[in-house]
């Protein structure tokens, strides 16, 4: 069986997700009429192709591992939350906390992402074709975020080892985030991620934001004033 189609107007989502949790190596699954349902295609653990033909609600493709999930619409909060590997591609816009705590894999968002994109990122890569909202990459510990548009307030607040690349304007940087010179390795990394996402922007137009590493250790002498 090479391809399976489910229509959520006729088949309960629980049944669809149960099917997706079987050994499905190499199969293609298409989900019609998602109608903003929450928790579509969560917890996948096989190299399958899943296409969601419409808008999805909360936590679409959450905890993804190995699967390639494409969403032909917008998504609610927490898309690809805690993703371990694989690829999640949102063809529209993403609500708050896209890619939260994602540990591996690639999240691509063609449009804008709302507040807290990449919050607590732990190793995944995120490429956003549009802009991101305030507090994106808050406490991002590892991984890379490429933002082809603009960034809101407090970008990279309490940043650890994650690196952020921004093509547009930055409204403000968060605590301990700083602009740094782009290196040849940075240009290569941005070019590679843009190519994987299917975007054509010039890597030389991006800026690098990383941690100043002043918050790594508690200092009682500064009276909590950083």
UniProtKB/TrEMBL annotation:
CDD domains: GXGXG (cd00504). Transmembrane segments: none annotated. Gene3D superfamilies: Glutamate synthase, alpha subunit, C-terminal domain. InterPro entries: Glu_synth_asu_C_sf, Glu_synth_lsu_3. This is Protein glxC.
């Amino acid at each position: 069986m090479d391809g399976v189609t489910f229509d959520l107007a006729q088949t309960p989502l629980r049944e669809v997700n149960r099917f997706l949790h079987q050994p499905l190596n190499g199969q293609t699954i298409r989900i019609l009429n998602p109608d903003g349902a929450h928790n579509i295609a969560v917890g996948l653990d096989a190299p399958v192709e899943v296409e969601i033909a419409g808008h999805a609600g909360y936590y679409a493709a959450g905890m993804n591992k190995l699967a390639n999930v494409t969403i032909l619409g917008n998504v609610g909060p927490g898309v690809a939350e805690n993703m371990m590997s694989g690829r999640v591609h949102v063809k529209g816009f993403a609500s708050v906390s896209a890619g939260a705590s994602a540990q591996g894999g690639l999240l691509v968002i063609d449009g804008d992402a709302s507040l807290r994109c990449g919050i607590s990122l732990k190793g995944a890569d995120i490429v956003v074709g549009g802009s991101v909202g305030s507090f994106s990459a808050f406490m991002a510990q590892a991984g890379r975020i490429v933002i082809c548009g603009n960034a809101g307030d407090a970008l990279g607040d309490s940043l650890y080892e994650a690196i952020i690349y921004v093509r547009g304007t930055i409204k403000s940087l968060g605590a301990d985030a700083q602009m740094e010179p782009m290196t040849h390795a940075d240009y290569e990394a941005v070019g590679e991620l843009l190519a994987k996402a299917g975007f054509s922007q010039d890597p030389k137009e991006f800026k690098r934001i990383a941690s100043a590493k002043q918050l790594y250790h508690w200092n009682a002498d500064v009276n909590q004033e950083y």
